[in-house]
Structure to design on (174 residues):
């Protein structure tokens, strides 16, 4: 996990977003921590080049980007998907995961209490996957998916979609 360094001593302490979880959630996608655009909008995956909403749109055959954010979240919940982040708070300047300092883990054990039908956790990218030792202790399937971030330019949209499709089908949320 990242540690506090003198590199960004004046970085602000940022607080993440509330979880999007329902009692019938079967699969939770865990990001690392919201980027600048997401924090400003108070919306998960708000950066216009992030592939999260386009991937869900392709998987579900719905133009989620055209829906108001509340309607997108309602669709996510209705389909048994949850969204949250590994970190509750951190220090960071900018949006890159590599700039995260002094991260504070969310209460990930809360997932099992909030979603008793939980079958799996999918980590959205490498920084989120650093918490796999914690999520594996919850007794559900844990997978690492390619990051939907625009910073993950080495994976094409189609390649990301194929990996996400597999995980979503396996857990009944495709």
């Amino acid at each position: 996990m990242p540690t506090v360094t003198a590199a960004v001593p004046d970085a602000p302490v940022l607080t993440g977003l509330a979880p999007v979880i329902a009692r019938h959630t079967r699969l939770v996608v865990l990001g690392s921590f919201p980027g600048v655009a997401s924090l400003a909008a108070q919306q998960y995956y708000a950066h216009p080049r992030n592939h999260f909403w386009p991937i869900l749109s392709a998987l579900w055959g719905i133009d989620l980007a055209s829906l108001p954010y509340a309607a997108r979240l309602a669709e996510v919940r209705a389909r048994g998907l949850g969204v949250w982040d590994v970190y509750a708070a951190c220090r960071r300047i900018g949006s890159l995961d590599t700039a995260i300092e002094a991260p504070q883990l969310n209460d990930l054990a809360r997932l099992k209490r909030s979603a008793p039908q939980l079958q799996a956790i999918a980590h959205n990218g490498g920084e989120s996957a650093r918490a796999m030792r914690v999520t594996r202790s919850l007794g559900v399937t844990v997978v690492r998916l390619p990051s939907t971030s625009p910073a993950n330019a080495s994976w094409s949209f189609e390649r990301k979609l194929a990996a996400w499709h597999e995980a979503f089908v396996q857990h009944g949320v495709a």
User: Anything to note?
Assistant: Residues 1-6 have pLDDT under 50 and may be disordered.
